[in-house]
């Protein structure tokens, strides 16, 4: 996917670290408009694929973290999803990410969250998507294709980066974005502040009203 007009076709981030542009200068994250197209296309996908796509887009979690999500970690009252941060070196590291009520309602409707939580164990061990990583990736890819999206940004990782860029663009403090994304270092999260410069058109539209 070629860089859009006004965007910097250069890598953002520290050398050897996480990058938001590939070697050809193509974005590795979806813009606000592209993410909206993806979510509209997800509405037409099979129910389980739709909720997976919504979860990735609205929580910024990794695909592996979404696929590991269990019913007991959907906090309907608190309005958060609780993810095991799988890239940390030790087990038992969790983070709570606030998500829109529409996502929580969809998860309950499709996956029977309330029913599962009324059972013994409150849904512990009941995975929402008992899929392999490849099955999950293919479900997301199919929605990307339906939305007319391609290139390095059209991926689960592209949704995660889109979440980070959107959060920083909205004025969310970097330390909060770090917590939501489960980054070990704030310097990793800080690359999204660099990407905001490439989203100047979106920021300007807010000023234009």
Automatic annotation (TrEMBL):
InterPro entries (alphabetical): DNA_brk_join_enz, Integrase-like_cat_sf, Integrase_catalytic, Tyrosine_recombinase_XerCD
GO BP: DNA integration; DNA recombination
Molecular function GO terms recorded: DNA binding
UniProt keyword list: DNA integration, DNA recombination, DNA-binding
DNA-binding in keyword set: yes
All copies of domain Tyr recombinase, residue ranges: 25-205
Superkingdom field: Bacteria
Family from the record: Belongs to the 'phage' integrase family.
Protein's name in the database: Integrase family protein
């Amino acid at each position: 996917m070629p860089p859009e007009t006004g965007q910097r076709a250069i890598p953002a981030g520290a050398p050897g670290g996480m990058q938001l542009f590939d070697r050809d200068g193509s974005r590795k994250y979806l813009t606000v408009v592209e993410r909206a197209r993806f979510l509209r296309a997800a509405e037409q996908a099979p129910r389980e694929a739709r909720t997976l796509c919504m979860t990735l887009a609205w929580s910024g979690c990794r695909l592996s973290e979404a696929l590991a999500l269990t019913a007991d970690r959907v906090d309907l009252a608190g309005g958060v999803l609780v993810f095991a941060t799988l890239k940390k070196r030790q087990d038992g590291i969790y983070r709570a990410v606030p998500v829109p009520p529409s996502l929580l309602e969809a998860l309950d409707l499709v996956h029977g969250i309330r029913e599962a939580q009324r059972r013994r164990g409150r849904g512990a061990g009941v995975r929402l998507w008992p899929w392999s990583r490849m099955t999950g990736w293919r479900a997301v890819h199919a929605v990307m294709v339906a939305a007319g999206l391609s290139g390095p940004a059209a991926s689960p990782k592209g949704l995660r980066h889109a979440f980070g860029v959107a959060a920083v663009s909205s004025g969310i403090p970097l330390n909060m974005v770090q917590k939501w994304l489960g980054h070990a270092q704030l310097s990793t999260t800080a690359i999204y502040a660099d990407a905001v410069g490439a989203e100047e058109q979106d920021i300007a539209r807010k000023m234009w009203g």
